[in-house]
Amino acid sequence: MDIQKLQALAVIQEAGSFSRAAETLGYSQAGLTYMMNSLENEIGLRLLDRSYSGVRLSETGKTLMPKIHRLLQVYDALNGEINACKCAQQATLRLAALDTVSTRWVPRAVAALKSEYPQITVSVISGSPMQVDNWLRDGSVELGVTDKRFTGTDMDWIRLCDDPFLAVLPPDSDVPDPVPVTCFAGRAVIIPDYGNTTRVFTRAGVEPVYTDDRMNNRSVLAAVAAGLGSTVFSRLELDYYARQDLTVRAMDPPCCRELGVALRPGVKGDAVVRSFLRALRAAADADK
Predict the structure, then answer these.
(1) Is the sign of the CA dihedral 270, 276, 278, 284 positive or negative?
(2) Quick count: other Cβ atoms within 10 Å of Cβ 133?
(3) Model confidence over 264-275: pLDDT tens digits?
(4) pLDDT higher for 54 or 41?
(5) What is the widest separation between alpha-carbon atoms in the chain?
(6) What's the whole-number mean pLDDT along residues 191-216?
(7) Which of 72, 117, 74 lies closest to 93, judged by CA?
(8) Which of 10, 100, 265, 284 could form a disulfide with 240 if both were Cys (CB 3.0 to 4.6 A apart)?
């Protein structure tokens, strides 16, 4: 059954005459009449009553027309989804991510997205939580995989997982596992990038002796390995730097950072974004 004939039938019902319906559709009256005769012959039912005063639905037409209207609505919705998918294929998704997740979850999620939308362009930039928040605010990216602590309340937030903080001490340190946070009171602690260390001790009411060092994370871990102090890294951060010459312990009480996706308002409903979020969650879950 040709959907175009059903669309024409709906216009005829509204117009009340072949001539007005033909004008609306841009057909000749003869062509439209032929189309309706063809439809009736195709289904074996008379749908229209014709008279000199105009045309109206037959009793059979009146019975079928509500279902025909629903079919046309579904057809229009399907066309809308198809067009949206075509647009998505040509779209560009701009995202930012913390260094620690841009090398783990993000590549797998982007690969999954591109298998669904082969023509899509994905732009990824990595940086600190503060940089990710700034890029979201100035519109450089639509979404950011980041630490909730550094994300403004004006952004939409989708939680992915908790990333526990771990105590990182010099090699061969004789400390229990988990190590009580109180063990760091009065001890030298080197602050890594983003200040993750401070929230752990502040929450526990512990006051370590923070060093005056201002180093990147690789240098912080090298300093700890040399016995110059201790530090705190999240599990994903420590995995990212892959140091094996350190003493690593869970912390008591435990503390973690919440990782997730911050989105600019209005972005969450986009089909491409939804697909990326599903792929990202699958990658994060597989990493647990």
Answers:
(1) negative
(2) 20
(3) 998 888 888 999
(4) 41
(5) 102
(6) 84
(7) 117
(8) 100
DSSP state of 281: H
Q: Rounded CA gap, 164 and 141, in Å? A: 27
What is the three-state SS of 56-116? EECHHHHHHHHHHHHHHHHHHHHHHHHHHHHHHHCCEEEEEEEHHHHCCHHHHHHHHHHHH
Return d(Cα 205, Cα 226) in angstroms, integer.
27
The full DSSP string for 16-42 is SSHHHHHHHHT--HHHHHHHHHHHHHH
Answer yes or no: are the C-beta atoms of 241 and 217 closer than 8 Å: yes
User: Would you state the structure tokens that stand for residue 46, as one six-digit string?
Assistant: 């008379």
Task: Tell me how far the alpha carbon of residue 9 is from its chain's centroid.
Answer: 42
pLDDT tens-place string over residues 113-135: 999 888 888 999 998 898 999 99
Q: What is the dihedral of CA 70, 72, 75, 77, to 10 degrees?
A: -70
Is the CB of residue 279 less than 8 Å from the CB of residue 120? no
If you count DSSP H runs as helices and E runs as strands, how many of each does the chain have, helices first?
A: 11, 12
Q: Are 188 and 211 in contact (CB under 8 A)?
A: yes
Query: 247-252 and 156-169: which strand pairing?
Result: antiparallel
Cα(239)–Cα(224) distance, integer angstroms: 16
